[in-house]
Amino acid sequence: MQKVTLAPGDGIGPEITSATLKILKAAKVPLEFEEVKVGKEVFESGNSSGLGPECWESIHRNNVILKGPITTPQGGGYKSLNVTLRASLGLFANIRQCKTYAPFIKTHHPEMNVVIIRENEEDTYSGIEHRQSQEVAQTLKLISRPGSEAIIRYAFEYAKAHGRKLVTCMSKDNIMKLTDGLFHRVFNEIAVDYPEIKSDHQIIDIGAANLAAHPESLDVIVTQNLYGDIISDIAAQIAGSVGLAGSANIGKKYSMFEAIHGSAPDISGKNIANPSGLLSAAIMMLTHLGISAEAEQISNAWLCTLEDGIHTGDIFTETLSKEKVSTSDFANAIIERLGKKPEQLTPVSYKTTKLSMDFSPSQELEEKTLIGCDVFLEWREEDRSPEKLARKVEALSSDALPLSIITNRGVKVYPAPPTEAFKSDHWRCRFLTPNEQPLDYVQILELLAQLHKAQLDILKTEHLYLFSGKEGFSRAQG
Ligand code: NAD
After folding, report:
1. Is 245's C-beta closer than 6 angstroms to any atom of ligand 1?
2. Which of 78, 233, 261 to mutate to test the pocket of ligand 1 (most atoms within 8 A of CB)?
């Protein structure tokens, strides 16, 4: 029998896990569960990842983990257990379905049924951050073509397998033309391979507003890590209770399923938490493993329970509910309804469809030509006058690699008319060869040596390349 690693987690985790397991056992799901400890206890035993060696061994044996919520202890030094698991297991896709169950659960959006597919491994979540000067810190946003191709193709494959009609890409490519521009371009390229599915693009800010105001106009959303993190919480919130939704983290080899909510310490140990989030994650796990008949039976019994007005406190309302029940009684009510189908809510029916994961990167190597560099300096002297810095730097640069512009916080300050805008101590000096002449890396080293000798504080350099003759760097604003 297939084994699954089971991590009940912290707070309400053990209560909702035991309710979920009871339902799975009653439905005779052909799985064996191997329980491991993760989270608070492991963190507090001195393991900063919250994951002990027996947990890793179990995951590597079973490839699938059903995980309860984790309490991250307050204070520094602890790593995000979820980020560690996602990165170590190659879980590139996060899938969260946010659906409403009107008229049985209170909602402003009775027709909402949105699936958010979020890239799970890159973006600002790579966690590459530096404090560079007295005044400025940076985080690196890394977006790769293979990473974008994998998540976008997965979104279309998901839509195809689940009979979804529209895939919407959300990005901010009007501002981040290289990173988000790449994501949007890859989306357009891949959409062509799925002519049966409609596709569109929305700028993330208006997209998030549309999601909050008209979620019924959206079907499948595919987006990057940070945007996906934010909009999937908005979606869960407007769908009703955070206690209802589950999420799947999918990789080529491993997969992890969990409720979207946290460990809810305020209600822990009271047997009142809604186990639906973890149950819905478990249902996603069953369909992922091809155990579709049992997944369907549990899902329909759960819908019947909601329809019969048997509700936990978080979704209970005097007008729509009939009985307020505990976690364990909610599980018992689902078990009593196994084999039944809902009468008003649409019964689910799951097909066993394995999503194609053959996402081999398509990239062809392009001709890459070095034509300049951005040198970042920390500088606070001489009233922070851009002209004075420019005179200093120009005297140190050569005709082969002259100073082109200086920017401060991305805004061009030299050559430029004087501005009242605050200037930080973090300056970018851009050097470009005349007429895009190819540059030897040694010329950059010589320039850096000159700047260093003049006691300028060099923070970092970025190389400026042409790719097949096109600029691989952004222009300055202003
Ligand atoms: P939370 O999701 O735990 O709780 C937010 C609110 O929702 C609380 O009022 C809680 O009682 C309620 N709630 C959550 N789940 C519920 C359920 N199943 N049934 C009924 N009500 C429910 O968020 P939080 O309070 O910000 O975080 C608590 C802890 O959980 C923190 O340590 C946080 O780091 C952690 N957390 C973990 C995960 C995870 O492991 N995936 C996700 C989010 C937060």
Report:
1. no
2. 261
* Nearest of 161, 164, 231 to residue 202 by alpha carbon: 231
* Ligand 1: centre distance to CA 264 (Å): 4
Q: Does one domain contain both 28 and 50?
A: yes
Question: Could you read off the pLDDT of 358-383 as tens digits, one per residue?
Answer: 777 777 899 999 999 999 999 998 88
* Sign of the CA dihedral with 227 first, then 162, 261, and 341 last: positive
Query: Ligand 1: does its nearest atom lie under 6 Å from the Cβ of 71?
Result: yes
Indicate the SS3 state at residue 13: helix
The count of domains in the chain is 3
Residue 299 pLDDT > 80? yes
pLDDT at 3: 96
Ligand 1 center from residue 244 Cα (angstroms): 12
pLDDT in tens, 408-421: 999 999 998 887 88
Cβ of 263 less than 6 Å from ligand 1:
yes
Question: Same domain for 136 and 179?
Answer: yes
Find the 301 Cα to ligand 1 centroid distance in Å.
25
What is the 240 CA–ligand 1 centroid distance (Å)? 15
Query: CA-to-CA distance for 382 and 35, rounded, in angstroms?
Result: 64
- If asked whether residues 128 and 40 sit together in one domain, one would say no
pTM: 0.91
At position 391, the amino acid (one-letter code) is R
* Boundaries of domain holding 443: 368-471
CATH of the domain at 430: 3.30.70.1570
Q: Are 273 and 228 found together in one domain? A: no
Mean pLDDT, residues 292-297: 95
Is there an atom of ligand 1 within 6 Å of 273 CB?
yes
Q: What is the pLDDT of residue 331?
A: 98
Cα–Cα distances (Å) from 375 to 71, 215, 225, 397, in that order, read 42, 45, 29, 12
Q: Examine the domain organization and report whether 190 and 80 are in the same domain.
A: no
The alpha carbon of 152 and the centre of ligand 1 are apart by a number of angstroms equal to 29
- What CATH number corresponds to the domain at position 297? 3.40.718.10
Can you tell me which residue has the tokens 């204070």? 75
CA-closest residue to ligand 1 atom 39 = 69
As given in the structure block, the two tokens for residue 276 are 């639906």
